[in-house]
Amino acid sequence: MSQSRLEHTPKKDTPSFNDRVCAKCMGHRSLCGVNPCPLLMRAKSLANLDTSLTGLDLIGSSPPSVFVGSYGYPKVLMGPLVPPIRGKEAELMERPDLWLSKSLDQILSIRFKLVRTKSRLAIQEAIDPSRLLHDTQTLALSEKPTDSDATLLKRPQFTSVFSDRTLPIGPSAPLHKFRLEDNPSVPRKVDKVTSDTDYKAVLGVIDLFDEGIQQEHITRLLSVGLLGQKKSRKLVPTEWSITAVDDIVGKELHRRVLRMPWINDFYVFGDYALGNTVVILFMPRAWQFEALECWLYGKNSNVISDHEFSKGRTTYAKDVVGAYYATRLPALEYLTRIRRQAGVLVFMEVNPEKWVPLGVWRFREIARRALTRKPRKYSTLDEAITEVSNYLSNPIENYLKVSSVYNEVRSQTVLTDFFE
Hints:
The chain is of the alpha+beta class. It has 2 domains: about 35-185, no CATH class; about 260-420, no CATH class. Helices cover about 35% and strands about 20% of the residues. It is built from 15 helices and 12 strands. The protein has helices at about 20-25, 40-45, 50, 90, 105-110, 130-140, 190-195, 200-210, 215-225, 240-255, 320-340, 360-370, 380-390, 395-400, 405-410; strands at about 55-60, 65-70, 75-80, 115-120, 145-150, 170-180, 265-275, 275-285, 290-295, 305-310, 345-350, 375-380. The protein has a 6-stranded mixed β-sheet with strand order 1-5-6-4-3-2, covered by helices on one side. The protein has a 6-stranded mixed β-sheet with strand order 10-9-11-8-7-12, sandwiched between helices. Helix 2 (about 40-45) packs across helix 5 (about 105-110) and helix 10 packs parallel to helix 11. About 50% of the residues are buried.
């Protein structure tokens, strides 16, 4: 694999999981027929809960973190994630923006220590929360780890620990009681937005993002039903709220970017981490965006894509799904920072031999890190495409032949073409 342009060369680690079946199974569908599941056995050994958790009392510092499931919707399983530890280590458990330099085993060890407590609740209970939900919502307000005490009904068990959108989590157990042992550290802006029960959720998400509140924090607030008008508040499954925040903020930044002048050259950015390569091409055009994703299963691997033109999307990106919104947001953040408009192509490659399902955050954070560097600038599209190809294993032609935006740019005449 050519990584000549990448400043962070991938390490030659021995991958923890390397079978393509694992990518589809996520550790809970028994697709390979191996029992016990090697993914879950690895998770159990990394968590090491047999020595750190005795009995049914779980005393620790929540990062803070809350998980709301989607199974059984509109009645869902939800509860705080609590590790049997206290201290600064807990804060790192909910900060994926700090994980790109870590190994897969380090990340999994951090996340598998989180015990997912769960209770079955109707989503509308966010309007008039019970004591258990109220304490969970109070935890979600905090920006720092909060000491808590949970009593479980059963010993935690590893069942499903992976998802294609959410962060990995440790074992789960039904929750009997939960209480906070200290007061949460709540940013003033968070308190103001969540206390306003006449304020729409979309506006609340945008205000919090503009204030610099961590994206994971905003997602948590939306998920536990602390944003929006009082009568409309509800619990939102975590995997849905992750993409919802990406999309809500992305749409607002898209609206702002449309008023800005175009860039003058073609910009190329690229980075690699955790078995994933992300390359971003900015073109001197009106806003248009396409995410192209490829799993490297062979010499000419299949490429999937979703795109939008100047007015944005009105339907869900059904092929690239969450990764579409997770990479569109950093591109719009960058254009907002430089106060310019551009067309954008994002190329994503996933190496199954170095991959485990960590959630779409990895694409978002790899893109963000790439965009902190100086771009490689080119005067023509062909030069820029050649540069993009230097980062990729799959032939660039496999991407371009399915790209709607690339083919539209190739066929479109703009005013500057008459001056070349």
